[in-house]
Amino acid sequence: MCRLVRDGAGDLWNRFLRFTQRAAAAEFLDEDEREILALINQKQGMTTQSEISHLPGMNRLKAHRAVKKLEDRGIIHVEKYGKVNMLRVVEELKGAI
User: Fold this and answer.
1) Which of 25, 32, 35, 28 is nearest to 90 (CA)?
2) Cα separation of 58 and 70, whole Å?
3) pLDDT higher for 22 or 36?
4) Which of 32, 36, 45, 85 has the most beta carbons within 10 angstroms of its beta carbon?
């Protein structure tokens, strides 16, 4: 029984570490990345990459590069539906960014 509690606590600790690492990564976002996350939060946690490319000062290439960086950092998740990329903040960071 104690072993199960320790394993459960270890899992919780690992989740906490992943959360703090992602939250720390959010402090180092550039302005474009912050705008993207603000738009995602404004749209109830989900938007398309096309909507991001319509932000002021943004174009399709710049949006693609910023989205790719956020995805590589583990801050957002990209789901492809044909030619449409749906963007969501990962579950661990909802409300934190």
Assistant:
1) 25
2) 15
3) 36
4) 36
* Mean predicted confidence (pLDDT) in 47-74: 94
Residue 57's H or E segment, with its range, is none
Name beta bridge partners: 87.
47, 78
pLDDT at position 1: 40
Taken in order 54, 90, 38, 65, the sign of the CA dihedral is negative
Q: What is the pLDDT of residue 6?
A: 46
Chain-centroid distance, C-alpha 96: 10
- Each residue of 41-52: b (16+ CB within 10 Å) or e? eeeeeebebeeb
